[in-house]
Each structure stands twice: as C-alpha cells, then as structure tokens.
Amino acid sequence: xxxxxxxxxxxxxxxxxxxxxxxxxxxxxxxxxxxxxxxxxxxxxxxxxxxxxxxxxxxxxxxxxxxxxxxxxxxxxxxxxxxxxxxxxxxxxxxxxxxxxxxxxxxxxxxxxxxxxxxxxxxxxxxxxxxxxxxxxxxxxxxxxxxxxxxxxxxxxxxxxxxxxxxxxxxxxxxxxxxxxxxxxxxxxxxxxxxxxxxxxxxxxxxxxxxxxxxxxxxxxxxxxxxxxxxxxxxxxxxxxxxxxxxxxxxxxxxxxxxxxxxxxxxxxxxxxxxxxxxxxxxxxxxxxxxxxxxxxxxxxxxxxxxxxxxxxxxxxxxxxxxxxxxxxxxxxxxxxxxxxxxxxxxxxxxxxxxxxxxxxxxxxxxxxxxxxxxxxxxxxxxxxxxxxxxxxxxxxxxxxxxxxxxxxxxxxxxxxxxxxxxxxxxxxxxxxxxxxxxxxxxxxxxxxxxxxxxxxxxxxxxxxxxxxxxxxxxxxxxxxxxxxxxxxxxxxxxxxxxxxxxxxxxxxxxxxxxxxxxxxxxxxxxxxxxxxxxxxxxxxxxxxxxxxxxxxxxxxxxxxxxxxxxxxxxxxxxxxxxxxxxxxxxxxxxxxxxxxxxxxxxxxxxxxxxxxxxxxxxxxxxxx
Length: 625
Ligand code: GCB
Description:
This protein has ten helices and 32 strands. It has 625 residues and is of the alpha+beta class.
C-alpha cells in the first residue's frame, strides 16, 4: 500500500476548503431564515478494503450506501469509535462513509439553501444526489456549501459523506502512518497511525449537520469589535452582503436584554454608541449580572426581499500590559482548567447534556476561564462561555508540531488557513480573550522562529483586538518563538514527569523557572498546565504517585508558589485537566489520561475539592469591582 492511498492530501490537488462565501455565521432562525436539522441515525460503512479506497474507486456516493455493502446505524453527531463493539471500528484509519435521505420543502425553491457541517474529523467529501458539493480539510471547524442546484424539490434527496481520519505531517494535529513490510511479524498490508498528541484521534461527523435558508441576497458576514469610551459602549461593525450587490440597504439595531432598541445605524460599516452600556464581564468579576449580552439585529433589504440576522454581542475590551491582563481596563486573574471535548460513548460528538454538566462543574469548581485544548470546540460550547461569562483561550488544533516536515511550507500554509477559519468563526465572541495558535510545538528548533512569527503575525492581522500566544513547554533559555507572543503561556510538570514523587522540589524549580521567563521577556505569564495522573479511588498515606492524596499534595505545592507571584506578573493558572480523557493505548496511560479533577463521568476526585476551595477564595481576593 502506498502512503498516497491513505494520506489525506494524497488528494492534495483536490484539497479545497468548503467556503461558500466570506462568512461562516452560525445558522439561526429568523423571520427570513429557516433551519432544518439533519442529525439522527445515519447509515455507516467503514471502507475496510486493504487500501481503504474501494468506496472512492467504486463511487459509493452514486447510490444509497446500503446498496454498496453492509451498513450499520451510526448517530450523527458522534465519533464512530466507541459506539460499536468492534475494535476494528474503534481503531479504524481511513475513509468511513455515511449517508441519509432528506426532503426539502417546495417553498425553498426560491431561497438560497445551504448545507452546513459544524465539523467532521478530519478530511471530508460531501455529495448531494451523487454530486460533489464540498470538500473540507480539517477536523474542528465548520464548512458549508450552497446546494440549490443539486436539490430535488419534488422528492427525496440523498446526502453522502466520506470522512478520512488519517493524520499526515501536514494536518493539524500532524501524524504519520507506519507501514510494516516484515511479513514474519505483521500480516500483509499492515499499517498503524502514529499520533503526536496525547489524546485519542476520535473521528466522524462530530457536530450538527444542518440545512438553512436565506434570501438570495443575504447577510453573509459581520465583524464586531467593541470599545469603551466615557462610560459609553462602542459597537464597531462591518457587514458583508452576499448575492446581488446592487441597491441594498441595511438597518442595524442594538437591542438590550429586554429587547429595547438602544442604538441604531444604517450603514454597512459603522459604529453604534450605547450610553450607560452594560459591559460583558466574566461571572467572577460581576457575579450579579455577568456576561451581559446585547443583540445586534441586522436587516438587509434588497430586490430579493429582506434578510434578518441576530447576533449576540458583548461589549468588552481585553488588553495585556507588562504585568496584567485587563478586562474592561480592570485586572483579571484567570483561575481555570484546560479541557477536552470527549466523553464516554460519544467520543467528541456534540452532546448538550455534557455541555450543561461541564459548565455546571466549571462553575462548581469556581473556574472563570478555560483553554480549548487542543482544538476549537463546538460552537454550542462557545455559546455557553459567552452566556455564562467564562473566558476562553481559543486554541487551534496546532498540537504536536515537532518534526521538520511539520514546519514545512505546506504545513505552514494549512496552519494559516486554519487560523483564518477559526478567527472567522469565533471573532465575535466576547468570551474569547486570547488566541492560542499551538500547544507545545518544538520551539527549541530554529525553524520555529519564522514559522511562529508568521502564524502569530497572520492571526494578529486577522484580529488586531485580541492577544495572541502559543503554549510553550520549553525552557526560557532554548525557546525561539516567545518573542512573538503577547502573553507567555507555559506548561510544567515538576514532580510528575521529572523528579517523580518529589513534591518538595516543586516550589524551588517552578519559582526559578517563572522568574527566568519574566526577567528575560518582561511579559505576563499564565501557567496553562500542571497536573498529576490520579486513579479515582486509589489511596495511600503518605501519598505516592497516582493516588488521590498525591494529586492534592502536588497541587498544594504549585498553589503555594503561585500565591507568591500573583499580583506581580502571574495572571493565570490552569490545572491539567478538568476531567480524565481518552488517549491512544500506551504503557503510560491506564485507559486514558487520568490528570482530571473529575473522572470521565464527571465525578470529583479529592483534588477537585481543594481546587474548588482555592478558586472560590481567589474570586474574593482577586476580583474587586
Ligand atoms: C502536556 C500536553 C497535554 C498532555 C499533558 C500530559 O504537556 O500539552 O496534551 O495531555 O502534557 O498529561 O502529559
């Protein structure tokens, strides 16, 4: 088998992103728009052919999947990995196929009909009635296509999706395939996928699949930035119309929570000023009225009729000084957790019950910020961060960038493209306070300097209003990319991966490490990871590694050191991890990574109570409004 067969960009020439217009607005109902959900039980078939390309060669998209061979029911959204009892599906690498039929109302014929995927991991091809409508390269961001010309308005339509989870040196995250040719040790054609990240490569159609309509002239995109001036909230906006550009007019209204109009405008680009504005604050800074959201109502009138789109917006500013992180010009101390999006059974599939539970647990712990480690999370999760007032470090899937190939021009151009898609999706979210372009890349390599200068510079051009960083695990003496960041984010495991079991060295080692970063760069710091694997229910006193007592002792030492640097230059701490999560199998992982404060079922370990007490104290001591 050749690498080309599995390699996602074996189809490199065909690699097109599925961008229908400039924008990627979340599908919302309005008086001019309709949304139809295509979630549910789809037909599923993994292409188990030795080279995984039988489906493409035999054009499985040209007929219902069930006619090409056996299919099983597969929920959308979900990862396919943990749904069946079949190890071959759990560990599958290559193309999987999905299909379902759907109808569209006949009165949609005169509207623009868009098919949108919240995300599918990793490379997707989509056909409607056997005709290719879009391809998308990347596992964590939405893509869409206008599908009017492919639709049958008089009967059933067939929707077919092929998804390939192969990671290559140029995907984000990157990975490789090893082909074994020693037939004394491996069966013929044997290959394995090597991961460069510490989480399971869950795959499938992970988020909603929806149809939505707009008039043929429509609001395609809007960019909102906000400011505060003399007690007034300033909403700067830029609206882009799609379709016909002639003779359109726009009405812009800002509505408060009660639906009162508090500001208006009638230009595509402009600013609305709101007197006595209610600012968006994280819930720890404004417990009684957190996360105030206004609605930006846009009404576009054209020869095609009227299009209305409502966007929730929060008025707030984010700034980084030499020593502080400021929200609305007031110091903010981030006490948070890094997360993952997975849970039992559904893998990384969108799950509203899990989202609600996670936000309830975040608040129970007293968390006021989280990092979307190590990929962009579902828009429905980001919605809750906006609504509930939790700050987010919004991270790209740039995790595990380590080999020379990962720093190649091909990788760089994909990384720039992914940052473009991420900023386009999340630019209007008040909860997003910092962009993180990568986690733990090999920034000790010389090549990392131009690479990250370029990715960070590109991200700042896309959004000049937010700080940009990457998360670093190198020592200040050998890192080459920190000069380009606005705020230093770093991960440390003293007393775990080094000096294992020796909590007594943590304060000394961490203190000199942090002071070293500070004196070299004079920038504020957030420790974005520290943690110890802990098997819930395992106890030992005095503590030893993997027990609940060790996790408590270990964290206590970190906390003592943090307390000596808060108010100087440390502006945040984030424990690794909010909850246990799945990884590939390996001798260092006992059914996944166990550094969670919570089990995978979201039950607290002893350390969760320690953290909860600390974070609730920090709320009182570090947030005064
Ligand atoms: C790290 C990585 C994270 C791992 C964690 C660990 O530094 O950023 O992805 O899961 O360490 O537990 O080893």
